[in-house]
Amino acid sequence: MSDLPAIAHRPGAVQRSGDAPGVGFAVAQRTAIDGLIDHARGYAESVHRGGLPKVPTKRLAVVTCMDARINLATLLGLGDADAHVIRNAGAVISDGELRSLAMSQRLLHTTEIAVVLHTDCGARAVVDADFRAALAAETGIRPSWGPLAFGEVEDDVRANVRRILDDPFIPHKQQVRGFVFDVETGVLTEVV
Questions:
Q1: Angle at CA 172, nearest 5°, toward 158 and 78?
Q2: In the chain, N or C terminus with fewer CB closer than 10 Å?
Q3: CATH number of 60-191
Q4: What is the tens place of the pLDDT at every residue in 129-153?
Q5: Could you tell me the pTM of the whole model?
């Protein structure tokens, strides 16, 4: 039983949360999220299998970019419950990622970490300090997150791996490895 409010479903109908039933319906274009919901319904009925372990079966955590061109499961051959996957813009290892990795290892028994950056990353085209300044000018509020600087992708892989190795809260550091995925060729190359 869900704690979410029941919402009537009609193709093309949208009801805002809090509206009385039958009120607030408007004809809308189907969205990408509508398609996801349809797919999830079929997934629940025919694909999903419960009872998977909380502990990743490969004892692996992967940090990568949020770039939609990286289909991590297909690229690395990961199945359900195989690994923790942590994604963000640029695959940056910052406080949030270190927290997730510490929890992954200390609470859910992972022992290996792969950091996967990629070529042609959109985050590399952004001067983060300028982006923060533009957001502050537009909203009147400075973002709480700090600016980041990107260099050569291989150097950034090394810097991310170094942040993990230097973190005192991540206990298992024997297998922390970094890679670059080439979005044009599909080749994954380890950075030594």
A1: 75
A2: N
A3: 3.40.1050.10
A4: 888 899 999 999 998 887 677 889 9
A5: 0.79
